[in-house]
Structure formats: C-alpha cells, structure tokens
Amino acid sequence: MSFYTSLNGMKNAQTSLGVISHNIANSETFGFKRSRTEFSELVAGSALSNPRMIQGIGASVKSITQNFSLGPVEQTGSALDLAITGDGFFTTRSAIDGSTLYTRAGSFTLSGAGNIVDSSGNRLQLFPVDANGQITGNTLSDANLPTQNAAGAEFVGVTIDEVGVVSASYADGSTDPVGAVALATFISPTGLKKVGQANWEGTGLSGAATYGAAGSGAYGSLLSGSLERSNVDIAEELVGLITAQRNFQANAKAIDTATQISQTVINLRS
C-alpha cells in the first residue's frame, strides 16, 4: 500500500513541477496567466468502517486552476498595442478555421488587407458604430481600415480611445470611426480552454461569452500604447519549485524506507 501511495505522491509532485516550469517559461509572454496545481486527499472506507480506523491512501490532482489576476502594464507607445484594465478579453477570429478566440494579449498590427490582427493573423472583432462613434449593434465583424475615405484621401494612421472606438485618419485631415473593440467576459473564466499563443476558447465550464464595450461594467477600459505582461511572480514560482522538489524527494524517500522494511521482513529467519 505504501509503495503506491508514495508513487502517487511522486506523480503529483511531477505534475506540480511541470505546471510551475510552464509558468516560469512564460514569465515574459504578454497576456499569459499563471496556473497552480490543486490536490485532493484519497481515503478508503465503507459504510461499515470504523471512522476512527479509516486510512488515507494518498492524494490525486484535483485541478490545474488558472489565475486571471491582472498582470503589470508596460507602455510601448504603439497605437495598436492594447491593455485591458478590467476582466474583459479581446475577441478574435481565427485565420485558420474561423473559430472565435479570446485573449488578453493586445499586441495587434495592420495586415496588408487592412485588418487589425495579432501575431498569428487572427482578426480583431469590432462592434459597428455610427459617424459619432456610438455603437449601433451587437453583431461582430473583422476590424478593417479602408485604405481611402469617401473623398479619396489616403489612410495615414489609426487611434483607439479608452472606450475602444477605432478611428482611421486620412491625408485630408479627416477621421472616420471604424468600429468599437468588442470585449468578452465569462461567468467562470477558469473554465476557459487554453489553445496556445495566449489564446483561450469558451467551453461548457466557462459559460457563454457576454460581449460589451470597453469602459462599461466589468469589461474594463482600454489603454492604447500599452501591453499587459504575464502575471507570473518569479519569486513565488521559485519557492513553489523548491516545495515541489522537496515533496518529490520525500515521497521517493518513503518508497526507499518501505523497500528497506520489506527487505527486513523477507530476511527474517525463524
């Protein structure tokens, strides 16, 4: 029994080491959210067991829980670098299969087609707006900046304000609102599924996305010219790394001790 109890402990410590290593590896990844490993106790007993004699049989990994606390904000000066001050997520459309992705990494650029995209080519989603920048509907569409305005003037730049209104500037001095950045929130963000590149997908555990504009409710305002860094605390992760290593060593020592006891019993002579 003690062999398998300690073996499970070693496997759990190894899982914890893997999670911590992943956190440390992504300490410089914009929009990354750290995870922690949670364990639960295992016991063996029945309805007829004496509750004072029920024996524990180790632990198992209960969950690997994501931490969505806000990371440090770094100023970059680029108009298309965006940071969210609240709980919202940027909504993007996958360039590969058209699926909807959510991210906190706001490093966007302009594509050759005039779309606002992330480093993987996923297209930022906007709400439609009128000429005054007021949202006119909740249908999401790709952020696309026309290369010319109605007067034929060439595109020269883009700005995004704190409520997410994207405005294109043209050579004749005019500015045209293109749309408003659509932010998403979830009733249970820890249920979101990681898909890499600091992107998540909605699941049944996270609940359906609720969309809204920046500057309202829990969505948070936008900071143009800034990026949210990883929320990994290196000092905290290193302490966790040492703890997980000691846990692994202690379980290994328990197996070694159980082996010695078994060997002693086997060597007993009458």
From TrEMBL:
Residues 224-268 form the Flagellar basal-body/hook protein C-terminal domain. Residues 3-33 form the Flagellar basal body rod protein N-terminal domain. Belongs to the flagella basal body rod proteins family. Its main location: other. InterPro entries: Flag_bb_rod_N, Flagellar_FlgE/F/G, Flg_bb/hook_C_dom, FlgE/F/G-like, LlgE_F_G-like_D1. SUPFAM superfamilies: Flagellar hook protein flgE. Keywords: Bacterial flagellum, Cell projection, Cilium, Flagellum. Residues 83-168 form the Flagellar hook protein FlgE/F/G-like D1 domain. The keyword Methyltransferase does not apply. It comes from Qipengyuania benthica. It holds the Pfam family Flg_bbr_C. This is Flagellar hook protein FlgE. It is found in: Bacterial flagellum basal body.
